[in-house]
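Example record for the data management plan.
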Amino acid sequence: MHIGIFGGTFNPIHLGHLRSAEEVREHQRLDRILFIPSATPPHKQATGVAAAHHRLAMVRLAIRGNPYFRVSTIELERTGRSYSIDTLRLLHQRLPRARFAFIIGLDAFREIATWKDYHSIFGLTDLVVTSRPPYAISSIRNALPVAVRTQFCYQPKTRTLEHRTGHRIVFQPLTDLDISASSIRAQLARRQSIRYLVPIAVERYIARHGLYARRVGLH
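Corresponding structural encoding:
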């Protein structure tokens, strides 16, 4: 089974997340996408981040009805910061027969050398690097940390970078949807509508629990 790993703060989850996951699943022919809300993101400030149980509940509401989408609490079950390498190792223990595809945005990929044990990640999972058009495979090759570049071989037929372990880095262009969690929170703070930016169930959940210092009016 080939499983996509889609981690994030999901503060809140929105239609851009869902559409990105669907496009990756379809183009990479994944059997399942695991949405993994982070407990304590290592690269983000905790200020303004909704409590983990709220973010988990919103993800569950957002993916309900899609048979290919699942939610995992693997990072919420651990104490401390949510490091990707720890999550990958634990997933391998729990699902030893699965092959994983770690979904990561190009901006985050450019900073992967700052991640904990980043060099070990390439031997545990495929990476699907996503971005909006225009795009170029050279962006990925140039973004690879210098220390690991010799471990990869470019495959021109598939336009992928293949690691010495057989895992691949694939570039996946996405539909250009200009939606972000930060802009949604800002709109809520200004008492503006977020309809059609998040699933209606998520909009209602935010309103019901008074998240992000704003109550959304429902019609």
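Summary line stored alongside the record: The chain has one domain: 2-177.
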